Structures are given as C-alpha cells and as structure tokens.
Amino acid sequence: MKEKKEMINPTTKAIILDGSREDDREARLASEAVRAEMTRKAIEFSYYVLRDIKIAPCTGCLKCWTKTPGECTINDEQRKIYTDAGRADMLVLITPVTFG
User: Fold this and answer.
1) Which of 53, 58, 57, 61 lies closest to 84, judged by CA?
2) Which of 1, 39, 46, 68 has its CA 20 to 30 A from that of 10?
3) What are the distances in angstroms from CA 63 to CA 58, 69, 74?
4) Torsion angle of alpha carbons 64, 92, 15, 54, nearest 10°?
5) DSSP structural state of residue 52
6) What is the mean pLDDT of residues 56-78?
7) Predicted confidence (pLDDT) per residue in 9-38, tens digit
8) Strand runs (DSSP E) across 3-89, as ranges?
9) 4, 15, 70: which is closest to 45 by C-alpha?
10) SS3 of 84, please?
C-alpha cells in the first residue's frame, strides 16, 4: 500500500488562540509543540495568549449589525485577532475543558 504524504500548502496561514491559565503546564507544552511543528513545516502563524490581552466585552449596542456590519465598533485588540482569523486556513484553540 502506498504511503500518503502529508501535503501542506506553503502559503498556509494559521492562528493560535491560547485561552489556557498561566499555571496550566499541559497547555503550555501543547502550545510549544504546536508552534514548533508549524515553524518546522514553515506554516505562517499568529499566536495570541488571550489572558494577556485586554478585550472589551460586548455592550449589546448592535452597531456590528447596523453601523459596521460584521465589525465591532470597540477599538481594541480583538480587531487584529478577527482579521487574522478571517485570513487563516487553520485555527488552533488551546483551552481547558471545564464543567460546572
């Protein structure tokens, strides 16, 4: 049987959103491994540690529907994140799974 080779487009772009806690060792190791592998495969990526970024909560103003469709009118770091996400071919979420 012929072995399948992994094919990744050389222009692949990715975004990594790290929503883990600062003391989460496993998430830190996973994040490091993902970034190392993307670097090894020459995948261009943006990396955001969400706990270090101030993002305003939604105010419910609905301006993203009426004034600037699809774009929040609050000018903070989330604009850069959703711009990168919209251009990405791959999205990686690093986050704890919690219940209750």
Assistant:
1) 53
2) 1
3) 11, 7, 10
4) 60
5) G
6) 92
7) 556 899 999 999 999 999 999 999 999 999
8) 13-18, 44-49
9) 15
10) helix
Enumerate the H helices of 45-92 as residue ranges: 63-66, 78-87
Q: Which residue in 88, 81, 15, 8 sits closest to 40, CA to CA?
A: 8
Residue 48: name the closest of 83, 23, 74 by CA.
83
What does the angle CA 85 – CA 86 – CA 92 come to, to the nearest 5 degrees? 30
Cβ atoms 96, 27 nearer than 8 A: yes
Q: What is residue 71's predicted lDDT score, i.e. its pLDDT? A: 87
Q: 3-state SS of the chain: helix, strand, coil percent to 5?
A: 35, 15, 50
Q: Report the chain's mean pLDDT, rounded to a whole number.
A: 89
